[in-house]
Write a structure and sequence with these properties.
The structure holds two protein chains of two kinds. Chain A has a single domain, classed as Alpha-Beta Complex (Sufe protein. Chain: A), CATH 3.90.1010. Chain A contains six helices and three strands; from the N terminus they run H-E-E-E-H-H-H-H-H. In chain A, strands 1-2-3 form a three-stranded antiparallel sheet, with helices on one face. In chain A, helix 1 crosses helix 2. The model of chain A has no long low-confidence stretch (mean pLDDT 88). Chain B starts with 14 loop residues before the first strand and ends with a helix. The longest helix of chain B has 20 residues. Chain B is an alpha/beta fold. Chain B is globular. Classes of the chains: A alpha+beta, B alpha/beta.
């Protein structure tokens, strides 16, 4: 099955930026009601830039790998540039489209990021 | 079960990505035999009119067919009177009807007893009732020890059986509702309702006993006279019938005491500007035009099940269950949930096949090198179980349909200490070959995720070969 490429599996085995963060500026909880999977993202934001990011939670290989990849991608980026990220960019990151049944898994981390943007705009 | 039964199900002819689909998600919903599909078309083509209204012949015909199913349901579950059978949309609506109509009689200090293995549909309606005296904040409802109406849960043991020793501690005179599933939709456990009902009557004499039989219907006999409950709820769609038809059976005296559920047409005898006289049972609870054609077709699914007979159904599904449990327990990387021992098998049930007592055809499991969870704060080095979604995805690509997730039983997942489980569940048309394909699919998961599942002692042959060699020996 194409979905489970070695890169995805490597991120699943050893997720990047995995763990809680003390003194985070923003903590965002994201739940996938389909399966009850849950991710918590921690952000440190300075001068409109994400300077640190980490996450914890339980999820399938797809949701953990996409969270890991997304966390690497957004570190150091300005909130402004993150505002331009769309769902399809996430598919670019994880290396291809995902079966419809697994979209919610692949986009779980992205939904958390979206909340960060909405909250930051306020 | 003979192979011919598969011919009754048009769906099984369908190929999925070029492969035959092994449909092992019968606990969610079952496929429909041709007789049921035909009956829906026949109802619309030849017998369709609104019921209980017209004086013309066609309306009478439709009414007779609709009421005919009610009589059939009554016989099917051993109810004394068809008036005790209320049609709803599904089990969820049946339980909500009870919560909605019985709930207002509860007072501060009263208690509701459920179990840890309940489906959300047998938890949330009661939380809503218990929360009646609570304000809801941010779409969140909290029921705790300070709540005016308390909800208690019968705990489960390591094998997923109810811990009945707790009953005397959990029950008291304040217990007004006891609502339990007959068969767990995750663990497959068949709960000894009759035994529990006797204890409830003694320790909580004013409690009504409700049975969620959604998972049991079509797999084991439901005899409302024998169960000792006051209400029983189940759905047509889990027993080869159409979606959109649920049943609520209740003791006549208790149904009569309940206020109506929804108001509207058909549930009244007469309406004036100032007052309304409600209709007799069961129509008092059936407001509005019901699901006429599907109720009529439900009659055919009952006939279908009755023709097979529960002895045959139980034997077939039991053999598949035992076979899958056996195959899965040979794989060290697989963790099984639910009853898998035979300890509590009473004498008179000895004829039942070994691990079958107290268990239905629902098998929950997880796949992985260990059952360790990824603890927050530290990524454990690759030692995490494969998430059920990943297992189900890979199985799907092999043409095997199982369910993965929390199965609408999140509190139970918490008790089991996992976020989710895989679940295979059988119906009358499933075969040993399909079980083999499931097990082979799990081997594929092993390959994709590149971890070594411990092989059986010195054995490295494929599954099919092993089965053949067993047959030869």
């Amino acid at each position: 099955m194409d979905l489970y490429r070695e890169e995805i599996l490597e991120h699943w085995r050893n997720p990047q930026n995995f763990g809680e963060m003390e003194k985070a500026d923003r903590v965002i909880n994201q739940i996938n009601p389909l399966c009850g999977d849950q991710l918590t993202f921690f952000f440190k934001v300075n001068n409109g830039k994400v300077i640190e990011v980490s996450f914890t939670g339980n999820g399938c290989a797809i949701s953990i790998a996409s969270a890991s990849m997304l966390s690497e991608f957004i570190k150091g980026k300005s909130l402004k540039s993150l505002a331009k990220i769309e769902g399809r960019d996430v598919f670019g990151l994880i290396g291809g489209p995902v079966a419809p049944a697994r979209l919610k898994c692949a986009l779980l981390a992205f939904e958390a990021l979206r909340k960060l943007r909405v909250n930051s705009e306020k | 079960m003979n192979k011919k039964i598969r011919e009754d199900f048009p769906f099984l002819k369908r190929k999925y990505s070029g492969k035959e689909l092994a449909y092992l998600d019968n606990a969610s919903t079952t496929q429909k035999p041709k007789v049921v599909i035909d009956a829906i078309a026949d109802a619309y083509q030849n017998h369709y009119a609104n019921i209980h209204r017209g004086v013309y012949d066609l309306s009478v015909e439709a009414t007779n067919l609709y009421e005919g199913t009610r009589e059939r349901v009554a016989k099917f579950i051993g109810a004394k009177d068809p008036a005790e059978i209320v049609f709803t949309r599904n089990t969820t609506e049946s339980i909500n009807l009870l919560a909605y109509c019985q709930g207002p009689t509860l007072q501060a200090g009263d208690e509701i007893l459920l179990s840890e293995m309940e489906h959300h549909s047998n938890i949330v309606p009661w939380q809503l009732i218990a929360g009646r005296l609570t304000t809801i904040h941010n779409s969140q409802l909290t029921i705790n020890k300070d709540s005016k109406i308390k909800i208690k849960y019968i705990p489960i043991d390591e094998e997923g059986r109810l811990n009945l020793a707790q009953l005397p501690i959990l029950l008291n005179k304040k217990t007004k509702i006891v609502s339990l599933s007959l068969m767990s939709n995750v663990l497959g456990t068949i709960n000894p309702i009759k035994k529990i009902a006797l204890v409830v009557r003694r320790l909580a004499p004013s409690a009504v006993i409700i049975v969620d039989a959604a998972q049991a219907a079509g797999h084991i006999m439901i005899d409302v006279g024998d169960l000792g409950a006051d209400f029983v709820a189940f759905s047509a769609h889990k027993m080869y019938g159409p979606t959109g038809v649920g049943v609520l059976w209740g003791k006549k005296a208790l149904l009569e005491k309940l206020p109506p559920f929804m108001g509207g047409g058909d549930m009244i005898l007469s309406v004036d500007f100032e007052k309304t006289t409600f209709n007799d049972l069961p129509w008092k609870f059936e407001a509005g035009t019901p699901n006429i054609a599907d109720v009529i077709a439900f009659g055919e699914s009952i006939k279908f099940v009755e023709k097979l007979g529960f002895e045959k159904i139980r034997k077939h599904e039991g053999e598949l269950t035992r076979y899958l449990l056996g195959e899965l327990s040979k794989i060290d990387g697989v963790k099984l949930y639910g009853p898998n021992s035979n300890e509590e098998r009473p004498r008179q049930r000895r004829r039942e096949v070994a691990p079958l007592f107290g268990r239905g055809p629902v098998i929950a499991f997880n796949v992985g090198p260990s059952t360790l969870r990824r603890d927050s704060g530290q990524a454990s080095s690759g030692q995490v179980p494969i998430h059920p979604h990943d297992v189900a995805s890979i199985l799907s690509s092999e043409g095997v349909a199982i369910r993965s997730g929390h199965h609408c039983a999140q509190p139970l997942m918490k008790v089991l200490g996992v976020p989710a489980v895989c679940r295979a569940s059988f119906g009358v048309y499933n075969t040993e070959e399909e079980v083999d394909r499931l097990v082979e699919g799990i081997r594929k998961v092993e390959k994709v995720f590149k971890f070594e599942m411990p092989k059986e002692k010195g054995e490295s042959v494929g599954l099919i070969q092993r089965r053949n060699s067993r047959a030869l020996a």
